């Protein structure tokens, strides 16, 4: 189940433009050390371009030279505002550079800033305005060596270079931002899946133990006049299952504490997990609790035909040879089925069958008659079969359960077994 969007940390939905360090004009922009270095480089670049343009002022009227010097100095100083008002800086400097040469450095820096910090729908028109602003300068104040056409071509080349460079920088920043967001999402998904896995383990283990406690306690309540030997045996079973439940709970809490202390980083150690070989011990435990359980394992090697199923001992495949992950899933399926049988039909006989082999897959089937139970039912949240379905599907298998025409309730799980 995916996490609701409103519960996801807000930074996952922040727009890339904000993460690129843009200001909105309403609050000061906090510059990092890298930002200061970049801003100093941009300021020096604007000053250098202004100084190069100053060499072309020989022979110009004194008033125009003074205006060029004042506007050039102010435009270079305005470069420090490029993070807060990049579009304004680019448009104003471009408009002034249509006649004044020393503003050209600030105009180039402003265009580069807009290309980095704004999408193309904003930066594109700004670049086009910069190109249009080159025409009056080339016509009204042409360079003697280049002429009007040469000045326009040179200006277009400078504008295109600054704009292309800004687009490349923006694309790289967006790529880095995207990779970081994917890493954050992957980490959150990993934590969520780990929490769900631990929750399933708690349900599977504790539900089994507590149902055993309830079964023995119900027997004592139903037969208070039972022989002292039977009462002592039931009390011993209650004590043993209570101790096992506490032990299982300590293991799960230990896993949770490790995950919390590690901050969600690194692998989380699993408590000892059951395998298919432990299924016989589970069945025997249920028998000692008073359940009528029959268990059959029919495992066939890959070369055997599916129709010629033979018992495990003769097939050459032992229950311990089943892959651990596959055996653990089958164990949890049978464990949950037996727990449900104790809840809803505690006196009904239960048949457990495990069959299959490499290539064919492993099938676990649990059947029991749907007998009416008039005693006090063991409470449940109704999430056991839902969690079991998720567990089986995560393993690549299928799970089906429900009443049969003959009156039995059947739970059948199939899991793939790679040869």
UniProtKB/TrEMBL annotation:
Organism expressing this protein natively: Nonomuraea muscovyensis
Domain Signal transduction histidine kinase subgroup 3 dimerisation and phosphoacceptor: 194-259
Positions of transmembrane segments: 36-54, 89-115, 122-140, 152-171
Presence of the UniProt keyword Lyase in the record: no
Keywords: ATP-binding, Kinase, Membrane, Nucleotide-binding, Phosphoprotein, Transferase, Transmembrane, Transmembrane helix, Two-component regulatory system
Organism placement in taxonomy: Bacteria, Bacillati, Actinomycetota, Actinomycetes, Streptosporangiales
Known catalytic reactions: ATP + protein L-histidine = ADP + protein N-phospho-L-histidine
GO cellular component, one term: membrane
Protein name according to UniProt: histidine kinase
EC number in record: 2.7.13.3
One MF term in the entry's GO annotations: phosphorelay sensor kinase activity
Cited Pfam families: HisKA_3 (PF07730)
Keyword check for ATP-binding: yes
